[in-house]
Every structure is written in structure tokens, then in C-alpha cells.
Amino acid sequence: MATALFTRGSVERVKDAIDMVELVGARSDLRRVGTRHVGLCPFHDERTPSFSVNAEHGLYHCFGCGASGDAISFVRETEGLDFAEAIEHLADRYGVELEREEEDPRAEEDRRRRERLMRLLDRTATFYARYLWDSGEARAARDHLAARGLDEQVLRAFRVGYAPSAWNRVLVAGQGDGYAPAEMVAAGVAQMGRRGGYFDRFRARITFPLADARGRVLGFGARAVRDSQKPKYLNSSENELYRKGRHLFGIDRARAAAARAGRVIVVEGYTDVLALHGAGLEESVAIMGTALTPEQLTELGRAATTVLMALDADASGQEAMLRAARAAEQKGIELRVVELPKGSDPAELMAADGAPAFERLLEGALSVPEFEARRVLDGADLRTAHGRDRALELLRPLVAATPERSVVRDELVRRVTDRLEVPASYLAPGSGPDGTSRAGRPAAPDATPGAAVATRRAHPGSRAPAEPSERAFLAMCVGQPRLGRELLLHAGEGHLSEGMQLVRGHLLEHLDDPLADLPDEESTAALVTEIAMLAGSEPSSEPTLRLSFLQLDLRRVERELRAAARERDFERQRGLLEERERARERVTELMGETG
After folding, report:
1. Disulfide engineering: 39 pairs with which of 30, 292, 392, 440, CB 3.0-4.6 Å?
2. Cα 8 to Cα 4: distance, rounded to the nearest angstrom
């Protein structure tokens, strides 16, 4: 459902109401130094404070990891929200009433209905949680959770509850609060009987609220306590609020921790997440099944750039990890595979061996090529020459898909050649046993996951999605055209990805009217339209725009420094180090750092 834009005036009132120090202070202990406030960065682990807040301009910047922005971007990054959701979150927090531009009456009616159903779900989650801890009927459920080694504090934080066995407790309570039975069916907490009438959907089960990134309850997962109860797990049916493939269990509680750790741990079940959070691994979420959807992967990418998949060690779990890896690469996400002992899940491992043992498994996570190679080798008949040749056919594309002169590739080649007892030349793409090309030409790509990856990398025309920071910068240039034109002229190839360079070229010619004479290329036209829409809905200031450009500039310098170091170009390194220092000084000046 499309959401009407908020009026510019109401968005500005939200921004004016924000206490930047109070907002950021909820994530990091800040102390005043001159005209700024400093503290530990909430986006990465550090021991020496490098995070700075300028309360006057409403800006933040980390001199360690480079994270920067305003209050809206801070909420978007820490809470995993889009722009509209961040505005709503801040408006609720600071008591500002939002106005919408020309909202269609039907859209307004749908929005109010959704809000009403979400209030019902929230009240139901509160009821279930209270019943778990206060009722005698739920004693067996409490014993079951304790036997799994789950901490009560974590259970309460996640609002884990218990649905009573009576057939209409939630139904009656909901009607008492003014909800019609049809509304409770729409929210997924009641259902209609075959012969008419209504009854509670969840009865005599442990309940797990399924929340979005903002912590809003959209449905429930429920587990049977008795072995005789079927099915073992029962979820909310898909409805206008809840879509299983769009959500991650625990994402609302894991988002901030994932940003600090730079990683997010993905497991299968509710109790796995609860066990990991109880052990301090709060960057953990569950996919509630074995099929990681594109929507879930997008949400994971918002949380962190490294995803550690710790799914069950059975065949379906391994297939799920490989499917996820192929999709992750296209989104610029580094996906690594955590190998769990067969027949065990994270909750069982935590109960048996504790957090240090599980952390060692995380540290030993394999890259996807390593994981695929191990899977091929374990499934091959290495006792016969034919079996080893077949393994070589499958492994060559995997090796070709990994970057040259990398530790991952060297380790992959070493493992494969050791297992197959062949020289490294056998792994060259299209090579025969002597390492030469067959029929004088490269072999056709093998129909394996690795081959698909190799083919994609050989055709760089398929661009990865542009960085959110680049989109935000270009949108602010549209919103601040005087300064925007000046900065667009300075933004070179090192600042923007290939796709966004095309957008930049269009904006330089049409900054006053970005939607005029859209490019013929469909993808570029779509990007220009998106950025123009973003500029119209996200007011910015000149300090915010300058900080956005400096962030891109520092990233450019860091990339060039790494390239110069690899090439041992010491003169170029010296020049870049001076350039980086000048950029940092400009950031310091903008942030008002005087002490």
C-alpha cells in the first residue's frame, strides 16, 4: 500500500523538536567537550571515543568508522527503518503531530485500520506475556523454557508469553475492548469455526511475538508444550499485516547490536535467538524456516554488511545457505557459513558448551566458496579417478569466482589440491589434466552455483545496487541546488558508483527540474525518479549536505590509499595521507570541535 508523503512543514517540526544529544545518548554515553558531545560509536566497537555530536546543527560523525548524518539518518541506521518510518518514530517520541499531503480517503481508511489491528496485536502480546508468568496453567511452559536454558530476563524482553487453553479468552477480551470478531480474525488472533462462530487461534501454546524492525507486533509464532499437540509450531496465518517472508524474528532487538558488531547472525528458530541473546550475542535473528527471502536479505543488509548463517547442518539447511549466498552477492553482502555439528542447533550448543564455544564456531565461519568446495569434496567419490575428475569440474568455477591474490583463494586452492592430490594448475578454468586449455578455448561455464558467480563477475555490466549514502547525497543536492551544483562538480568517479555517475551527469544538466528529459536507459531513469522523490520528501540543510559529501570523499581517499599500498606507490600514499588529513579537518570544523 502506498503511503502519502508527510508535509514538509510537519517534517520540519519533527526535526526542530529533536534533542540530538538525548536521542544519541540513548545509544551511547556522551560527555560535553567544547561545543560538541563525544562518546563511543554506536556503529562499531571501539575503546577510545571517536564519535562526535553537534547539537546545534543536529549532526553526528564518527572519526573512526566514518558514519555520519542527521537525526533521521541516525534513527534509520540504528532502528532499521525507512524515511517515513523514521519520521513516524521521531514524531511519536517527541509528540509532534504529522500531516499528510492529500491522502486518498481509502488510503487513510486502510492506514487507520492497520493501526487499530496493530494495537490489538500489541494488547494480545501483553496479555500472553502476563499469563506466562502469572498463571498456574503456564507452569509447564515456564519449566520447558527453563529446561532449554533460556534466561527469564531475555524472555521478558522478547515478550514471550503463553496462550491459555480456554477456547475464547482472547476473543472475549478483545470484544470487551471494542474489537469485532472479524477484526480479530484479520489480525490473526482468532479464527472462524467450520460451523460458524469464532474461537482463539492460539491455545495452550508458548507464544513468540513477531515484530517488525520498529518493534511493532504483526503476528505470533506459537509452540506446543505437550508432545501430543499437533502441529508442533503454529504461526499467524498470512494477512494484511503479517507476511512470513518479509520478517526476521528478533530484528527489532538485534539491529543496534549488529551495527556495533558489524555482523548479524542468522539462525532458524525462536529459541536459538533467545539463547544467543541470553549469552550476549544480541546481533542474532531467525528466519523462521529454511528459505531466506529477498525481503529478509534486504533487512539483513540494513543491519550489517556481514551475515553469518548458522543454520542446521542438515541438507535443507545447507541448500538454504547456498541459495542465500547467491542472492547476497548481488546485494553487496558478505555471507559466511557457520558449520554446526550435525544434529544440533545453536540453542542446544549454547546449553551444552556455552558462549565461548559457539563464538569459536563463528570465528571459523567459512566463505561461501570454501563452504561449497567442502560440500563438493565431501559428496564426491575420491577413491576413483572419475570421481576426482568430476569434483575438479565442479570446483574450477568456484576457484575462478574468488578474487586473485587473496587469502581466501590461496586457502581454497590448498584445501582442494590436498584432498584431490593434484597440482594447482589443474584448477585453472577450462584446463585439462595438464593445465592447458581444451580445444584451445576456455571451457563453457559449468551449471553450478560457483559457475554462475564466475559468469556474473566476468560481466560487470550488471551493477550492484547503489549505496544509500550516494542516493542521500544526490537527493540533498536536488534539495539544496545552489550548494548541490557546486558539490556535484567536485564529485568524480571515486565518489560515486557507475550507475550514480550517470545520475550525476543528468542532474548537472537538469538540477532545477530533475524529471525533465529523463535518460533513455530505464534503470538510470528509475534512479533519477527515485532520487527526485526522495529530495521532495526529505528536507536537508547545507551542513548535512556538506557532511554527506565529506563522507563520500573520505571513502574515496581510503580506497585510493589501499590501492596505493598494494602497488607500493609511496609517493602517492604520502599525497593521499595529506588529502585525508585535510578532509578530516573539514569534518572537524563542521562538527564544531574546538577542544
Report:
1. 30
2. 12
